[in-house]
Amino acid sequence: MRDRLAVALVILAVAFAVIAGLYYEGVLQIAVSDSHAAHHITHAILFAVLAVASLIAANFAREKTV
Amino acid sequence: MTFAQALFMGLLQGATELFPVSSLGHSVIIPSVLHWQFKQSDPTFVPFLVLLHLGTAGALLVLYRQEWIAIIRGFVTAAMRGRITTEPERLAMLLLTGTIPAGILGVFLENRIKSLFASPYVAAGFLIVNGFLLLGFELLRRRAEQRTSPQVKTRAEQEESFAAAERISFRAAALIGACQALAFLPGISRSGVTIGGGLLAGLRHQEAARFSFLLATPVILAAGLVEVPQLFATGVPVGEYVAAAILSGVAAYASARFLLRYFRSGRLDPYGWYCIAAGAASLVLLTFRV
Predict the structure, then answer these.
(1) Chain A residues touching residue B103 (CB < 8 angstroms)
(2) B243 closest CA partner among B17, B27, B48, B22
(3) What are phi and psi of B84, to 5 degrees?
(4) Which chain B residues in 107-146 lie under 8 Å from chain A, judged by CB atoms?
(5) Signed CA dihedral, B180, B63, B203, B72: sign only
(6) Nearest C-alpha neighbor of B132 from the set B282, B281, B273
(7) Given an 8 Å threshold on Cβ–Cβ distance, is A60 in contact with B108?
(8) CB-CB contact of B193 with B182 (8 Å)
């Protein structure tokens, strides 16, 4: 059960990383103040942080052997 | 903006960012009350605010330099191990938990809310609301004190029956982080709502202030660093703005030292009454154009 949660969190982390990349490249324009900007760095940083946080949560959720 | 005005705004920002009286509210109200003509839509105004925020964040980093080293070490260790074993590790994860909702709400809501309410009248109104919020936090805290330690006489003994920042729950840390979104309303204080949230979560006053300052540091620093490229725009008087930022940092450092000492036994009430009085006085001055 815990390992399933960990896998789900890793998938979430990958999704956040992809969204971060899309915001950085300016492909994603959802909820941005300046839709003409080439890069949405603030949004990209936020989703990159969420990706890292999800990976940390996955590490906390996985079954520990020791 | 003249050099003197820049220095004054730096001092104001640094002092009010950490006091529970809303720096944004003061920076909206005071220029209007003093009839200063500089426009906040001026392209050099954002770089100015960026530098002031970096000054404040720098002061907090200096104040808590030892603690931040332990927090960063604890963060890396706990993240790699997948388990929390020490107090700095727990504090690091609590700060991450509190920063995430603040970051999400900040990125998606901050500019929209600020642009909706960036009027000195609205800011003065929310300053009064902030005052009542602070008084409300203390009212609830006094009831908790009556429940937990009815026999205790001194304030120091009362405070001892409450917890340190590391003992707060993760749910409470997330809620306190989310409460920071209220501070996008000019007049509502970020430190006020986070200290109040800490009190409701059962922290000692001094620990609630410490958690509030630690929680504010990454958000203020990130908000400043993201906008750093704007400093290199043409026409920005970097030298004058850096002087204001240094003043902001000095004021923030002195404010934090004062508040941590004050909250050993002090309460939020005086700041609550100040906000109500300042908000009401500002409304009168703005209405009658004194």
Answers:
(1) 46, 49
(2) B48
(3) -100, 125
(4) 107-108, 111-112
(5) positive
(6) B273
(7) no
(8) yes
Burial class, B254, CB count within 10 angstroms (exposed 0-12 / middle 13-18 / buried 19+):
middle
Per-residue tokens: B54: 């970096």
SS3 A38: coil
The Cα of B51 is separated from the nearest Cα of chain A by a number of Å equal to 17
Q: What are phi and psi of B149, to 5 degrees?
A: -145, 70
Rounded distance between C-alpha atoms, residue B267 and residue B259, angstroms? 10
**B124-152 pLDDT, tens digit each:** 999 999 999 999 999 999 998 888 777 77
Cβ of A53 and B80 within 8 Å?
Answer: no
pTM: 0.88
In this structure, what are the phi and psi dihedrals at residue B224, rounded to the nearest 5 degrees?
Answer: -75, -45
**CA gap B179, B101 in Å, rounded:** 9
